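Narrative summary of target 7.
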Amino acid sequence: MKTTIHFIILSALCTPVTWAALALQSYDAASHYRFADDPAFIGNGYDWSGIAYNGDWFTRISDTYYVTAWHARATGSATFYESNDLLGPSVTVSAPSLTRLGTTDIAIGRFSSSPGSNIAIYGIASEPTTQATFTSSSYYEMEAFIVGLNGSGGNTTTNFRVGRNELDGFYDDVALTATNITDTITFDDDRGTGQSLGADEAYLQSGDSGGPTFITVGSDLVLTSIHLGIDGTRSYDSFLPNYIAEISAIVEAGGESLTLISPVPEPSTAVLLWLASLSLMHRRRVSQLPL
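Modeled conformation, tokenized:
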């Protein structure tokens, strides 16, 4: 099945008008603006340093490679901040080259030099899915962090807002144009409804194209997708796990590799032992039942 998103809607998404902001149910700078550097920030405990913005979005996926949207492709210079403190250390690198993945809206760029070890490299979720299998996948109704513009800061990384939503839909072969077709994961605009995640509920806006969506595994941000566009009350992201082979081929040709992370972590040894003990207890109880 192919779902067509109107080009005019997606075109508006990649052209910020006076730096429109990621729409939230109830924005609070302390909670949602990364560089407020406030204890109330919903992203505290996670490393946001591997994301940059210069009018388009860069998300670092290996030492010198990053992912971006083809229709809002990030090139030029990228400034990364090591922490959420605007006065803290930052590093600026140039990004002169870009490779598109076939006819998708996914592009892989390469920095002219490494941003360094203090800037995060994000692992990509390893589990593929399809429209037919999504509801039985690990991603179905999983909460995710959504990165977009804050509406202030201009074409710089400081224009950085974080919200949340649930991943609740999937569409194969979404056509941005006749020659731009990508598998997509989606999240609905449930602001003000009983399905909302509250104040953090996020919906994409103009200028967010190419920004990342992350699930979390432990204390790690795990990259699932990058923003593609909107259609009515639904936000669409290009789903990266379905393109791992193509992304890996580009990165490995440059002598580097991706980090792939299962969206559901393996159980720890302690958990396995606990499950084994429960099983043994159950077996013992069954053996004591009268014949």
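Confidence is low (pLDDT under 50) at residues 268-276, 278-291.
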